[in-house]
Amino acid sequence: MSERRPSTEDPVEVFHSHSSIEADVVRGLLDAHGIGTLVSSELSRSLFPVRFGQTEFRVSVVSGSAQTARELIASHLDEAAASEIRRLTETLGPLEARIGYEFSDIGLLEHALTHRSRAHEDASGGVIDNESLEFLGDAVLGFVIADMLFQRYPTHSEGYKSKVKASIVSATALTRLAEQIDLGRYVLLGRGEEKTGGRRKHAILADGFEALIAAIYLDGGIDAARGFILSLFGPLLTGAGDRAAEASFTEDWKSALQEWLQKEGRGLPSYRLASAEGPDHRKRFDVEVVIGGEPCGRAAGGSKKEAEQQAAREALRKLSEPQGT
After folding, report:
1. Separation CA 283–CA 277 (nearest Å)
2. 3-state class of 42 per DSSP?
3. Strand (E) or helix (H) holding 272
4. Which among 283, 291, 292, 280 has a CA at the least distance from the CA of 315?
5. Can you tell me the mean pLDDT for 283-306?
6. Could you write out the DSSP letters of every residue in 286-310?
7. Measured on CA atoms in the order 191, 195, 199, 204, is the torsion positive or negative?
8. Of 1, 228, 300, 318, which has the fewest CB atoms closer than 10 Å, so is most exposed?
9. pLDDT tens for residues 24-41?
10. Which residues are catalytic?
11. pTM of the predicted model, to two decimals?
């Protein structure tokens, strides 16, 4: 069988770089001169602790245009890349200041902020949305939080740490932290999503926050990602030596009280209904928690479940107080 001769339509690599900005600049430069491009990248299969410097972006063109492409790149790349970096720095620099992290490759930050609605509206097909970064960011966040809980609460049960972790990394918590750093201002949206208030949508903010974590991880490694995560999530655990403070993650005061009593070698609590007053549609329940035959907390609520949780909270508060206060 004879070998196939190379065709002028075969793709030829004309540029490669570890910088997504440079790859985007080259693609835009060649497209502007009527030369079609194909951009590809290779990521390491290892999750931890891969650094983004191990990833190469490759720009290819048909072989018939390769020489012209190389000449254009040689004459324009440095100036064009510098201009693009200045643009992104001016646009996204305030966000870097807010999060306390300066990107080596600011193109990664732009990628993390690119919603699928923006990518879908790009006719060139060269804009990639942040959904893959969301996936990676979720994994990095889960790892760092699990490690933090393991270090801080080594004697707590697996079930308890899982509940706390689920609460900390919930969509609600991520949205709140995204709002804290004003992430919505910087998200890159399509026109339709912009008109419908996408910058305030909780799903977009939570997903963007996870993508941001991934971008920091890819740019600076696991230590940089850990530093960013702990700077925002760490305060949630401040004072967590107090069992009442720990329970605030899950609002499951009854479970927290039971675990505290078991750790202290004391009997399990019981709950008794002290009173139920008011009409059926506005009834108030008064519940008392009893430990070792003694009442230890009392609270009211719109349901027995709510009243029991608040009574357990009151009991935890009393039990956590230093003796003699």
Report:
1. 6
2. strand
3. strand 270-277
4. 291
5. 89
6. EEEEEETTEEEEEEEESSHHHHHHH
7. negative
8. 1
9. 777 888 888 888 888 776
10. 138, 210
11. 0.57
Joined together, the tokens standing for residue 91 give 């646009």
In this prediction, residue 242 has a pLDDT band, given cuts at 50, 70 and 90, of very low
Place of tokens 């070698």: 265
Structure tokens at 120: 């879908």
Q: What is the DSSP letter of 49?
A: S
CA–CA separation, 12 and 14 (whole Å):
6
Closest CA to 68 of 15, 126, 105, 5: 15
Q: Is 8 exposed, middle or buried (0-12, 13-18, 19+ CB in 10 A)?
A: exposed
Contacts of 5 (CB under 8 A, 6+ apart): none
Three-class SS of residue 14? strand
Q: Give which of 33, 132, 3 is closest to 14, Cα–Cα.
A: 33
Query: What would the pLDDT profile of 174-217 be if each residue is shown by its tens digit?
Result: 888 999 999 999 998 988 888 888 898 888 999 999 999 999 99
Helical ranges in 153-190 per DSSP H: 158-168, 171-180
Contact by Cβ (8 Å): 261, 277: no
Question: Other CB atoms closer than 10 Å to residue 311's CB: what's the count?
Answer: 29
Complete edge-to-edge strand list for the sheet that includes strand 56-62: 11-17, 56-62, 38-42
Buried b (16+ CB within 10 A) or exposed e, 188-216: bbbeebeeeebbebeebbbbbbbbbbbbb
Q: Kindly list the distances between the CA atom of residue 246 and the CA atoms of 143, 282, 317, in Å, as whole numbers in the listed order.
A: 20, 31, 11
Residue whose entry in the numeric block shows the structure tokens 């996204």: 92
154: tokens are 């080594």
Region of poorest pLDDT, from 23-27, 155-159, 187-191, 320-324: 320-324
